[in-house]
């Protein structure tokens, strides 16, 4: 009997995948996997609601460069939810609200 991968196993495998292959995977996923489905933000990302993102992950989520992200933090526009050593973590709900505000400001 074939072993079905768990979500955690798949996630760990994706982390080990070379960046170019990971990008190809997500293109395939976005263009083919949910074709015809009308999933809302909560259905796709609801499991992340309580998670914290690293600065790099947060910058990627906000679709800004790391230097732009760091300027946002330094200016106080974004506040980390936790600091571990020198690493800052950012709460997913805060990032979601901030991203919504950015989109509204851009029009």
TrEMBL record:
Ranges where the Helix-turn-helix domain occurs: 53-99
Matches recorded under Pfam families: HTH_17 (PF12728)
MF (Gene Ontology): DNA binding
Keywords: DNA-binding
The organism's place on the tree of life at top rank: Bacteria
Alphabetical list of InterPro entries matching this protein: HTH_17, SinI_DNA-bd
Protein name: Excisionase family DNA-binding protein
Organism of origin: Thauera sinica
Lineage: Bacteria, Pseudomonadati, Pseudomonadota, Betaproteobacteria, Rhodocyclales
